[in-house]
């Protein structure tokens, strides 16, 4: 509770205690260190009820050393508040209460100020006159054939599947009966970040950990793909799920 007053006054009533419904959600950077010896993480906060919460961070970050299984040896290495650096949380709180630091008061975005991080459409609708989308017409039917997960198209053929972690995979790609590629697939997706504060500059994500395959969603015929597309259902399972998840129309040709 040591940071309650600072959070409440600085961030328009938001704290890490959700008694008022205004809850700060804490997140942490990855990887947790850049060598096999390191176990450091920057802990940062966002407004948990904000749409697009990652775009509404607050300027409070804590660098924690959490190496080893003995939590009594864990400690705080650095604290940043309003572009000011402190060695400990106690130092920050003491100087805040003594009014010897520059305080900040960030109001909660409301109305139009909160829309930029949402999916809510803004501006004039396009096109100005409502029109139906284009249609694909196949006068003689589909030029490809599907047998299970095997696809033939003119002189080409291949098999496909969806990997839970890395997403779509295509196997045994042949042209005129000759194998051209054994496997064509995404192995990993790396996202490296940068920014003024240390929190974004420490983030280097391998997004396969999120499950690119399991994160796919149902597609809508005529919106996400042509009306003539062939759809496939997807069954995924993650180790902490009690049952497998079967979702419709998550792959298509």
Automatic annotation (TrEMBL):
Its EC number is 1.4.3.-. Keywords: Copper, Metal-binding, Oxidoreductase, TPQ. InterPro entries: Cu_amine_oxidase, Cu_amine_oxidase_C, Cu_amine_oxidase_C_sf, Cu_amine_oxidase_N-reg, Cu_amine_oxidase_N3. This is Amine oxidase. The keyword Secreted does not apply. Its cofactor is Cu cation. SUPFAM superfamilies: Amine oxidase catalytic domain, Amine oxidase N-terminal region. Topaquinone (TPQ) is generated by copper-dependent autoxidation of a specific tyrosyl residue. GO terms for biological process: amine metabolic process. It comes from the Eukaryota. Residues 135-243 form the Copper amine oxidase catalytic domain. Belongs to the copper/topaquinone oxidase family. Pfam families: Cu_amine_oxid, Cu_amine_oxidN3. GO terms for cellular component: plasma membrane. It is an enzyme of class 1 (oxidoreductase). Signal peptide: none annotated. Contains 1 topaquinone per subunit. It comes from Desmophyllum pertusum. PANTHER family: AMINE OXIDASE, COPPER AMINE OXIDASE. Residues 19-82 form the Copper amine oxidase N3-terminal domain. Residues 118-137 are annotated as: Disordered. GO terms for molecular function: copper ion binding; primary methylamine oxidase activity; quinone binding.
């Amino acid at each position: 509770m040591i940071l309650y007053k600072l959070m409440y006054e600085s961030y328009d009533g938001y704290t890490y205690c959700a008694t008022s419904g205004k809850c700060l959600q804490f997140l942490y950077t990855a990887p947790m260190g850049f060598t096999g010896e390191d176990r450091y993480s920057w802990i940062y906060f966002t407004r948990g009820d904000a749409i697009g919460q990652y775009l509404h961070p607050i300027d409070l970050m804590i660098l924690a050393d959490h190496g080893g299984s003995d939590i009594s040896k864990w400690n705080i290495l650095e604290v940043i508040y309003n572009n000011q650096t402190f060695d400990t949380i106690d130092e920050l709180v003491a100087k805040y209460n003594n009014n010897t630091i520059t305080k900040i008061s960030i109001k909660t975005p409301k109305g139009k100020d909160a829309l930029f991080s949402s999916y809510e459409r803004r501006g004039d609708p396009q096109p100005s006159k409502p029109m139906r989308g284009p249609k694909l017409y196949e006068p003689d039917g589909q030029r490809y054939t599907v047998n299970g997960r095997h696809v033939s198209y003119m002189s080409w053929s291949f098999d496909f599947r969806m990997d839970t972690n890395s997403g779509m995979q295509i196997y045994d790609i042949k042209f005129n009966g000759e194998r051209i590629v054994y496997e064509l697939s995404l192995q990993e997706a790396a996202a490296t970040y940068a920014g003024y504060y240390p929190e974004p500059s420490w983030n280097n994500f391998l997004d396969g950990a999120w499950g690119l395959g399991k994160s796919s969603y149902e597609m809508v015929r005529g919106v996400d793909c042509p009306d003539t597309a062939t759809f496939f259902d997807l069954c995924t399972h993650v180790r902490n799920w009690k049952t497998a998840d079967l979702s419709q129309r998550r792959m298509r040709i």
